[in-house]
Amino acid sequence: MELNKRAFKTVVVCQKDREKTYTKFNRNLFDHVILPDKFVDVMKEGCLQKLREKCCFESLAVR
Q1: pTM
Q2: Max Cα separation, the chain?
């Protein structure tokens, strides 16, 4: 746990209305949650932008 706080940030991406398991029971395992309406929306620019902001994935792009 201590390593995670120093080394890198972690992000959980899950579909809206399916996040309860993560947010309620496992909140200590990650730093950020991204909730697209549907899993396919992960590849949309808005979600990719959130990933870039949260994780510093500057090279993340839709192909």
Answers
A1: 0.65
A2: 36
Q: Residue 61 domain-assigned?
A: no
Element (H, E) at 13: strand 11-13
Residue 19 included in any domain? yes
| Residuewise pLDDT in 10s, the chain (63 residues) | 454 455 677 888 899 998 888 888 888 888 888 999 998 998 999 988 888 888 755 555 555
Domain range holding 33? 2-55
Please enumerate, as own/partner, the contacts of 26-30 that have beta carbons within 8 Å and a separation of 24 or more: 28/1
Q: Residues 43, 62: contact at Cβ < 8 Å? A: yes
What is the number of structural domains in the chain? Answer: 1
